[in-house]
Amino acid sequence: MAFRRFVARRGTPFKLWSDQGTNFKSGERELHEAFRSMTPELQQQLARQKVHFHFNPPGAPHFGGAWEREIRSVKSALYASVGAQSVTEEVLRTVLTEVEGILNSKPLGYLSSDVSDGDPVTPNYLLMGRLDGSLPQVVYPQSEMISRWRHSQILTDLFWSAFIKYYLPNQQTRSKWQRDERDIAVGDVVMLIDLQLPRAMWLIGKVTKVMPSADGHIRTAEVLLKERTYTRPVSRMIVLPAIPDNMDTS
């Protein structure tokens, strides 16, 4: 059912990556058995889908580090926001769907062919082919959990606050006294982290000036953001990688 929901929402995938959880392995086995029991005509039609299951080696969860880290951040934020509360299925489904939108609006990088363009590349941009178009945020105090609608919005706000709290340290891991990391430089495209911002709002700007500290490292920088310059510590910045524009065949 999860696979059918995914296909209905995102289209048929080319590969499915997962660990060797019993639910995933059982799902693969059941799909294969169902395929073998079909008539040759149905098999020929479904074979064109070419969905391939790719499993990590047993006992190697680190092979899926990219998505396992995201899952851990989401779980930590959900525990902090929902916790042991008893919520209706409709409220929980609304919160999880809004969480999906928040995660898919997170910047991945920027197109290297147009560094002056402040619009980052996000999962939603790749999935929908356009910029994110989320609805405006509605903020309610926690004391007003009256309707299911307000309850869902309050829980989503709590998730956003907790997610930023857990997400930022994961993106700025530093190995003190072991190796030197590259300092932020003029021209870098960065994402500014502000815990006071509304949810799913990611500030993307370009570093225009750096301020070296006494030890020669960059601790503060000026960032140009929508024709305004902000001075922020580098601890509140995440450098976005440049994504090559493969569509430029010239």
Automatic annotation (TrEMBL):
One of the Pfam families matching this protein, by short name: DUF5641
Gene3D superfamilies: Ribonuclease H-like superfamily/Ribonuclease H
Domain of life: Eukaryota
Name assigned to this protein: Integrase catalytic domain-containing protein
InterPro entries registered for this protein in UniProt: DUF5641, Integrase_cat-core, RNaseH-like_sf, RNaseH_sf
Species this protein is from: Cirrhinus molitorella (mud carp)
Domain Integrase catalytic, first and last residues per copy: 1-131
